[in-house]
Structures
1.
Amino acid sequence: MKVTVKIQRFNPEQDSAPYWKEYSIDAEPTDRVLDGLLHIKNTIDGTLTIRSSCAHGICGSDAMRINGVNRLACKSLFKDVGTTVTVEPIAGLPVIKDLVVDMEPFMEHYRAVLPFFINDDPAPQTERLQSHEDHQRFDESTKCILCACCTTSCPSFWANEDYLGPAAIVQAHRFIFDSRDHGTAQRLEILSDPDGVWRCRTIFNCTDACPREIKVTQVIGEVKKEILYSKL
Amino acid sequence: MSATNSPRGFLAKTISYKGGIGHWSWILHRLGGLGIAAFLILHILDIFMVGVSKEAFEALLFIYHAAIIRPFIWALLFGVFYHAFNGIRIIIQDFWPHMFKYQKQMATAVWIIVLVLVIPLIGIDIMNLLTHG
């Protein structure tokens, strides 16, 4: 089938503002948007810049706004997105070129929530065992691939780039509710900052955008409750 | 690299993002809040006019009674009810996170409740306008 791909182009070294460029390609309905973009880059316009690594929905490097909604290009099929497709970079992060954004501000927020295991007890001879029920408490948040689809779909993040954002809160949730971790108080302190969880307005864009189908808003809600009840 | 989060850029992102019912509920919630704030300022102003003179107060009252202004009053009515009931929905979903799976149903329910309340009130107001001018 014929597909028209309308891409937002921007090279900060040459262009004063982003502009749209259309490409017409042949594609199978089961082709992914990523296949279309790579076809454009490889055969029509080599100046198009995109970021892609695993191409199988695991690394999260090809997050972009497709038809107005954040998705992974490698998980979006043309039969689902239609024959006229608009592609833009994810919003709220500085554009380096075309569809590639600078992820450093996003990663800075990720690092801010101490996304690593904290436990100063002497290491046991065997594994630190955990019940199935205890693991289920944070299982949802272990699925995050840090693609930034959630954070860059959040109006609170668009309004205030200091807001930690949904992805960082999901990462914090993964350790806060881990029964083996001892860093909960530190993380709750970080997240109770004015730029922490309280900037979440329960909008649900993050949940809708997550390619891993994490219930992001529910996860953030659980962290909000934990902070509230820890202070009572 | 391009600048990102200017107020103009924020508005452009908000309008262009094709989010679900949650996105549009949030926009409407904010618009309702702005409408309430604007009305509050107007209300403070007209009460202040009582202290200035009876004539000044009555001159400002035309705003509420002029037929051309009534649609704005209806919009405000909708905004007040929407802001209130959507606010209750958000409170419920914040305090009981497991209710998040019913987000779409709850957001739709807010619309139904608000329309059931607002449409008859607008109808009564139109009847009053037609009978009393």
2.
Amino acid sequence: MEKFTKITGIAAPMPLVNIDTDMIIPKQFLKTIKRTGLGVNLFDEMRYDEQGNEKPDFVLNKPQYRDAQILIAGDNFGCGSSREHAPWALLDFGIRAVVSTSYADIFFNNCFKNGILPIILPEDQVQYLMDDASKGANARITVDLESQTVTASDGTTFAFEVEPFRKHCLLNGLDDIGLTLEKADKIDAFEDKAKQLFPWA
Amino acid sequence: MTAPKTLYDKIWDAHLVDESDDGTCLLYIDRHLVHEVTSPQAFEGLRMTGRKVRAPEKTIAVPDHNVPTTPGRETRIENAESRIQVDALDKNARDFGIHYYPVADVRQGIVHIIGPEQGWTLPGMTIVCGDSHTATHGAFGALAHGIGTSEVEHVLATQTLIQSKSKNMKVEITGKLSPGVTAKDITLAVIGKIGTAGGTGHVIEYCGEAIRDLSMEGRMTVCNMAIEAGARAGLIAPDEKTFDYVRGRPHAPKGAVWEAAMAYWKTLFSDEGAHFDKVVTIRGEDIAPVVTWGTSPEDVLPITAEVPDPASFPGGKSGAAKRSLEYMGLKPGMKLTDIKVDAVFIGSCTNGRIEDLRAAAEILKGRKLAPGVRGMVVPGSGLVRLQAEEEGLAEIFIDAGFEWRLAGCSMCLGMNPDQLAPGERCAGTSNRNFEGRMGRGGRTHLMSPVMAAAAAVTGHLTDVRELMAETA
């Protein structure tokens, strides 16, 4: 997993609530057996018409947002399906951080496994960043995981919370399977005990 | 004396392998269900790192999302990408030695239908699957939830999951349901009330008389859509109905082990005075047959209502409602019962069980599909299909003009050939009405099997109670 420390980049505003994972990556692109190559189909049905031409009104098709690295989105981002193809598609497009008031649980987890930082801020601060992002490429937003801050283009800074373990893994790009396997003796011990207590399981 | 615990607390504590100083927990997983769409990258990850599946005997795989629901699929799946994914699962199941129900096996079906059917799903267990509707298994008093593909790989390799504990939420449905009102109406009514983020960060325990009165099939329908309320999982405390359902299933315990299991399972309930962070109560008598009008499962209204005005919603939801109505091709103020449908889909992990088929068949008996409406029944598993044929239900569907298909996820997510054309409108018993869910441009109204059957007969969204009155 790629490390996440600090990025300064273009933020794209998506002021829509309940952006679901079917919108982020429609099901026809889940037939891949790889994790890469999904960026071109990110937000496919919002981004392209039925002939496959770009819809010029969609935010990521606008010249000033084509290189966005950050998304500022409405409440409950990533709801719906558990498909990890959603963060894979975001990452493949180049999105490294999302800012919203709330996320669906599974999507939130999936982001951390892929080097994407989902940031939760109160509604007024999300709105501030949304307005800032609406200025286009001139507004560059900075996300600093170490100091847990988001800084708007005018220097206004907001602090955010992140679980220490997740922060640690993200800052260091750690594979958590490796970390868990270091606890193999504890898993063995649990299994031995469970065999006695719950033999049916 | 220990503090009173919720059902969720009890299952959590019984599976805790390790807790770090920062509160990060390692939770043991009893059953790992696997399907073809969210697993190939996880198995690939194991191969690349030389890791094995730690507990193949606790890992159960089945292809369901991609598979066509028409005959001939066991020898060839036309779509190359689907075929590659199903072939990959075949190979992964073989290479890693996990339990497997291939397409040709009569026991194949939707992963959340066959887990309970085969007795893999038992009370008190932790169950995960790379699929958000894993919440279904919570109906047995098992802690069950969806995970991403990286977590699938983590569970395959370690049989554990890194978790932080969720909050407890109680949803109580008191009293009795009225005729024509089903488990699907309960679960949609809850989502309509609390919203698609109402359960975020929580595990919901459903309780109350109306929940206790439900069959196991109904309870699975309720828990299945806990994820649509944003919850990590849904739970219902096991009782005699649960034990009766489980007893004798192929992978359920037998003999003395069964007795020991029962003794433990009977301790699985929320203690008197246990703390819930959130409590929601709905009177069963207040729930009507409902349908969705928009593109979020929270867009729920009683069938007797009218399409709402987006301006009546607060804040960001107003824009979303406007977008929904444009997508759905509806105007504010029109009666829901005036909405005409092109297709009816009965099936999915929400409503593809035998009881769902019985309920729909009851309405369809002696009736026909409205002219121009396409009807599709997709049983949740090969065994549900067989049973429905033995009970004469298949005949009722076929006589009414429905297509009687093979088991799979089908139109619920349109990853297979079963899809809507742009602009087509479907009365569906599935779980998501998202834009494009059943096919690009397709429009989905969610409802119960009896409501879908009623729409099939009249050709428009219909209050099933009217048809029930005719029959009576």
3.
Amino acid sequence: MKTDSAPKLKTPDPQHQLAVHVQGVDKSFGDGNARLKVLKDITLDVRAGEITMLVGPSGCGKTTLISIMAGTLGVDAGQVTVFGENLTTMRKSAITRFRAQNIGFIFQQFHLIPTLTCVENASVPLLIQGVSTSKAEKKAREMLELVGLGDRAKHRPTQLSGGQQQRVAIARALVHEPRLVICDEPTAALDAKNGTIVMDLFEKIARIPGRAVVVVTHDNRIFSHADRIAQMDDGRIVEVHDVDRDAPPVISH
Amino acid sequence: MIRLALKMLFGDTGKYLMLVAGLFFATFLMAQQVAVFCGLIRWTTATLKNVPAPIWVVEGRVEQVNETNPMLDTDVTRVRSVDCVAWAQPVYVGMQRVRLPNGNFKVIQLIGIDSTTFAGAPVKLREGKIESIRQPHSVIIDDLGIKRLAVERGKPVKVGDAFEINDQEARVVGIADAMTSFTGGPYVWTTYNRALQYAPSQRKMLSAVLAAPKPGISPEDAAADIQRTTGLKAFVNRDFSLDEGADKTEFNTSTIWWYVRNTGIPISFGITVIVGFIVGTAISSQTFYTFVMEHMKHLGALKAMGASNFKLCQMLICQALTVGLIGYGLGIGATAMFGRGALANEEPPFYMPEIVPFAVLGVILCICMLSALIGIWRVSRLEPAMVFRG
């Protein structure tokens, strides 16, 4: 599943297409005395063709930040631009449409629908876009082949291992060919072997031109798969750096 | 997405069956109870169906056919003298006791009709001829009577059998098809004069006068004329009507409203129907809400993946309507089977006006929409970002 050409030490590339641009974002939850500011003046760029990882301790705001990048959560201040579209000025319905067409999601708990087969689960994003069932399932089958689960198309999620379920979730995230894939703790429920398989798939996705992958993780076993790592703490980005893919991981958590 | 919604629904077998069962129960209880109520209320007008005449003339304070106030025999001639009336004949209607050969007794609805014109004779005779009641001690019984007046179970009464009415012989010369009476007693027709002999003597014995308008005059106009001329009350005998004023001029309507106003029957059935509605609503709403709550993370994931609130609402409505229509279909099917059995046995009363299945369907769809609305309310407030919070 590894890409043919292993990436070398990355250097900032001014020509690199910007997938996500987060500028001066603040976000708070609650009211009055209970109001808690979880993101403080966040500025971050996610470049296309790369895997960007958000890391940091629990409660530092990683999940809130990817929710904002995905357009599932609004901001109090600042701007979020995804592939040139300013989500902070878009109407909710437009954001929903934008999300359906451009963003793929991989959740920590997979969120596969247990009463649907793998191919039906994987076809959901296309069905949301109004594609016919036969076309959607044909494409979903191709995606399941890509993640190595072609022979499990008719199985239900409960008949699969955790790693296989996550791969179905990946097939679902990619079936509509989104430009941005957002992954929340994708390997948290997986063992090392399945975690590696999943991350190899992400690398493959990220190398497709015009695509970007953002991964929130605590799992330091997968840091080596990142192109860039943004370290967060207490609602702020404290460090962003490119990763030397040939060197051992530089960040320990 | 609709297919997906249905798969989600059918996949959760426990909740799906619970929802269908709740709506089946509600449908059956509402449709069956309304049909039994309508059947029972219809039985109150059985005398008007079994003793047909365009106009019934009764004493001025009478409100319903089962509670007549006797009139003088001369009132028949007073009615005949009204210009609009083509003919008028006396009729006796009263409950009497029958003694069977084995000593057992039964209550009957005795009808005495004019022996010349047979005005008020049964509409359809299954056996025998109407003229036969002119023979001494002759009576015609209805199809219920052949079972009720049987000496032994399984040995129905037949033409030629005899029993006693107030110690006087009554011999069966015919069997009629008739609607069951409200009291459950069989109808027994005989001549007016013989009916007066069977019944205990009173100063006044005439129950009502049956009349018909002259050609070209409507029963309503003739009835109004009779009332104006004689001071008696004249009702037309058509069928129950919700038209304004029908309870004053139409005898079926007047009779039914009397029972609605003066008995606990509507309240009793009404309570059962309301219980059916409440239980159906409670079960389906609660189960559907639990179903939605248990699928909240999946609905949240769909929302995060770009499913609009409208699409999710469509899914929930589709699920609610599907269980509603299945539950309704099963419930109406069960009601139809119950009705078939009831009509075959002629009890309990069962009559389902055409509007009832549609009205029950409307109520069931309202229950479904209410259930769906609770789910929609939750889903519309659902933050798609919640799926990231596990």
